[in-house]
Amino acid sequence: MKSETLAAEVPFYPGLSALAERYDAFIIDLWGVMHDGLQAYPAAVEALRELRAAGKRSVVLSNAPRRAAAIAKRNAEIGIPEDLPDHLLSSGEDAWQHLKTRPDAWYQALGRRCYHLGPARDYGMREGLDLDFVDSLAEADFILNTGILNDTDAVETYRRLLDEGLARRLPMICANPDLIVMRGEAMEICAGALALDYQQKGGNVRWHGKPHPEVYRSCFALLEGIAPSRIAAIGDSLRTDVAGAEAAGIDSIFIAGGIHGEELKVDSKGGIDAEAYRAFIEAAEWKPTATLPFMRW
User: Which residue ranges make up each domain of the chain?
Assistant: First the structure.
């Protein structure tokens, strides 16, 4: 049953079991929904198991700037079995595939000299590509942006580098459109925050992942035979998860206890501040179909 105490435009439910029968498949965000960057949420893993037991299909779709196989391995290390979601896609995989195959004019126009802006944990994105990775923007034909180098960095940390890229008119590939993410209890910026700043100042950015439509078409292909009306996306970001679902023509289920958990005053039991929730939904540019406190059954 939905909460009768929250007379909001978007209904609030205590768990996914209240909504599961409406859908045959779910496209599920990873960070902030299935794990916090350090460990899996046990209730979220159990919810995936319940979905499978109910005959529902699942695609975990992550705005992570790494190859899908690397993400699956990391998921297993922190408590999400590799074989539990039916499929796993990532924004990094999508970017890598485009760099590998160069399927359109934008990619075909790129040179081979790449400046990789990102931490060492993302170096798997370099493997298997016919590129020369260079150490300075002066040598580069384009920028591959996978994120910040240190967890506490801000956009301004990279001001000189971003300005130099703009001055040189270097195209940028953004392999993670997320602006922020929770790592444990701390919030940090993502590649998307750097790319958005670059684009707003006139830079040429190619985005991969949610909310951009290409990645949803890939999900639909994996869920062949299921009508979009029977598919829902689950995520904690209005800008990526909810907006992406809306653009793709599917329902969305918002996880209030993710990146907006503090703002919405979501407590450990799944309670939410009714007034904060009403104000949040009223102000939201993209409105979900329903809301849960956490990914749980």
Answer: 16-63+210-292, 104-207
Torsion of CA 243, 23, 209, 34, to 10 degrees: 100
Q: What is 193-224 written as a DSSP string?
A: HHHHHHHHTT--EEE-STTSHHHHHHHHHHTT
Asked if residues 34 and 295 have their Cβ atoms less than 8 Å apart, the reply is yes
Q: Quick one: fold of 104-207?
A: Rossmann fold (3.40.50)
Q: Tokens 């700043």 identify what position?
A: 197
Measured CA to CA, the distance from residue 109 to residue 289 in angstroms comes to 40
For the 16-63+210-292 domain, the top CATH level (class) is alpha beta
Which residue, among 144, 230, 223, has the nearest Cα to 191 in the 3D structure? 144
pLDDT tens digit sequence for 41-69: 999 999 999 999 999 999 999 988 999 99
Q: pTM value?
A: 0.81
Residues in the chain: 297
